[in-house]
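Run folding on both entries below.
>entry_1
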Amino acid sequence: MVQANSGLAENAEPEPDEPASDDALAHSLLSVVVLLKRLPLTGALDRGSLFVLSELALQGPVRPSTIAASLRLDLSTVSRHIRALEDDGLVERSVDPHDARAQSIRVRPEGLVVLEQAFRGRADHIGRATHTWRPDEREQLAALLTRLAHDLYPDQPTSEHPALKLHARKEHL
């Protein structure tokens, strides 16, 4: 059996006018995610609690089991983070209006401030990393990443995150 020769040497980079493969895109995104995870956190929260707090803010008042399912974590893990967030005054519990036997968790304004600070810390790191980029390159990257986020999860309001809304309000004051 004869294999077709693509004209590229093994391990050679594709020509600039060739579209990136799905593997190349996935590898690039994974590299960025891994590097972002290595950045220091702003504030006293650990990554897990910040992750849970962010999801709580995104979903609004919700049961812990819903957050656990969304994050694909064990309920006991999410409950531990919620207790810590509650102890820090960042979230509060209330009786679920649809089921008095269940509890609903919501983020307090202080929790949104913590999320905004974490977002600002990440944005500052990204700003330093891309400070030599042209403004149109930065805008293009932001637009493409927003599009990708929407295409990955079309039902998820990627631009409606409460922490981003808080950040936008502060910038317009």
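>entry_2
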Amino acid sequence: MQVRTSKARIHKTRARKKAVIVEVQNVGVCYRQRTGVLRYQKFWGLEDVSFEIRAGETLGIIGANGAGKSTLLRLLARVTEPDRGRILWRKNMSSSLLALNVGFRPELSGRNNAIISGLLLGLKLKEITRLLDQIRDFSELGDFFDQPAGTYSTGMRARLGFAVAIHADRDLMLIDEVLGVGDESFRLKSQQAMREKIRGDKTVVLVSHSMEAIRELCDRVIWIDKGRSVGSGNADQVIEAYSGAVREAVKQLILEARRNNAAKGGAALK
């Protein structure tokens, strides 16, 4: 079988020889779920996840909704701390998290939100101020750049968030489900910007449900299922295993639905 390999992934295979900059060791994150009045139970959003990130590589993370992918990105962004295990970092390493639910203040303009986001990403005020025109142009918000973010659609917020993150130029870029947002032209534009970062040896961790984007942009993939890392390795191999599991799960759901319908039909005849 011929394996499809993109130019970006051919370039990035060199990253396998580079130094480890992040090491995730048996990490777990625990939440409390309310089960009644003053009654709670523990729920592990992540449990026993281990992997490494090497300088200059693009690492994809895949899995079903609720598998723990976004929780893992928040750990890598240092937004939250693990309840179990540990994460080892290269000294003085910076990271930026780009997510659809980025915390923009709705009463502030896109310009002011871009400034705040840049500061939170570790940029100095002079640096983010100098980048504002480029961020405005890349986001394609036009006059809306100076309007309150509360008037933005989800796609507009994603555009602004991506524009800030792509210009922040942190050591580790964390992307959560943004490449499929917006119209076709912006999706292609954002993917092109990602490719340029990849060719420039930027270290990227990408979470996406788009297997096409993961296959093209990533040379290594981790599959998260129910809070655990169940697969890791070559992008094509891990995606094939994950897709096969999804197909089997859908098949079982269809069979179960048919059995239930047949049982209901039999009961009605009686």
